[in-house]
Write a structure and sequence with these properties.
By secondary structure, this protein is α+β, with helices and mostly antiparallel strands. The protein is built from 8 helices and 14 strands. The chain binds D-MYO-inositol-1-phosphate and calcium ion (2 copies).
Length: 279
């Protein structure tokens, strides 16, 4: 679905619905590819001591970037495997910037644990505008965007109603540098373990965020995330009634490397645990 010079996208009168439809189609195709490769022998490489990459990450990214570039030739792209590790905010910020994680949950995937997803988000002028997260193992597609709603397999989703942190279930994750950095989330993990009903570490931040949007989780926090982990779901969590911010409760920035997402009611209680001085 290429957009010519006179299209609504190119002219600035953005109609995001057809853009989202194309992203959904691309995420489904990439997810099907990941699903096909899942049970086959994997070619696994190491980007760091515990940071993996597989041939499936690369194949899915090639597919996604090829299709996005054909559909939106005037847009910019930042995708994990071709990013060269670049995670800083582009300057100048392109009007349209796609953020692509071809396989969020690579460690799970490489171990044959079927919790992983394709995550494709679009920033418009630096702000998450729409996103798609597709989980091929469960055939669950989350999508939505600003003014477009939030959906799981085309049904509208809503965050949970839980307002008591002690009864909440939250998720988090740990950065790949946890062995060498004290800023590794272990202190927060301990604190939240005492403050909540349960904590989960599923291994896919994109899915964690979608699970907040649809009420399976009441909240999520994580640091040192990458923009491609969060851009898609951040676009539609508010549409589901939730809230996304940085650790201080300020505006969420996909390049900021701190994410708190919640059903809204638990946002301040979660921020208070994060900002407490001692576990
Ligand atoms: C990782 C997952 C994980 C999170 C890490 C991410 P990857 O993404 O989202 O849940 O804890 O911070 O880097 O490496 O599987 O794409
Ligand atoms: Ca990721
Ligand atoms: Ca990834």
């Amino acid at each position: 679905m290429p957009f010519g010079d006179k299209s609504p996208v190119a002219s600035g009168k953005v109609n995001l619905a057809p853009v989202l439809a194309e992203a959904i189609d691309i995420a489904r195709e990439a997810g099907a590819l990941l699903g096909d490769l899942f049970s086959k022998p994997r070619d696994i490489g190491y980007k760091g001591k515990i940071d993996l990459v597989t041939d499936a990450d690369r194949a899915a990214e090639d597919l996604i970037l090829g299709r996005l570039a054909r559909a939106f030739p005037d847009h910019a792209f930042l995708a994990e495997e071709s990013s060269g590790g670049r995670v800083s905010r582009p300057d100048p910020m392109p009007r349209y910037l796609w953020l692509v994680d071809p396989l969020d949950g690579t460690t799970n995937y490489a171990h044959g644990l079927p919790i992983y997803a394709v995550s494709i988000g679009l920033l418009v002028e630096g702000v998450p505008a729409l996103g798609v997260v597709y989980d091929p193992s469960r055939d669950e597609l989350f999508h939505g965007g600003v003014g477009l709603g939030a959906y799981l397999n085309d049904r509208p989703v809503r965050v949970s109603a839980e307002a008591d942190l002690e009864r909440s279930i939250l998720a988090t994750g740990f950065p790949y540098d946890l062995r060498v950095s004290v800023d590794n989330n272990l202190a927060h993990f301990t604190r939240f373990s005492y403050a909540t009903q349960a904590i989960r570490r599923l291994g896919s931040a994109a899915l964690d965020l979608c699970y907040v949007a649809c009420g399976r989780l009441d909240g999520f926090w994580e640091l040192k995330l990458h923009p491609w982990d969060t851009a898609a779901a951040a676009a539609f969590i508010p549409e589901a009634g939730g809230r996304v911010s940085d650790y201080a409760g300020g505006p969420f920035d996909v390049f900021g490397r701190q994410a708190v997402a919640s059903n809204g009611a638990l946002h301040e209680p979660i921020l208070r645990v994060i900002s407490a001085d001692e576990p």
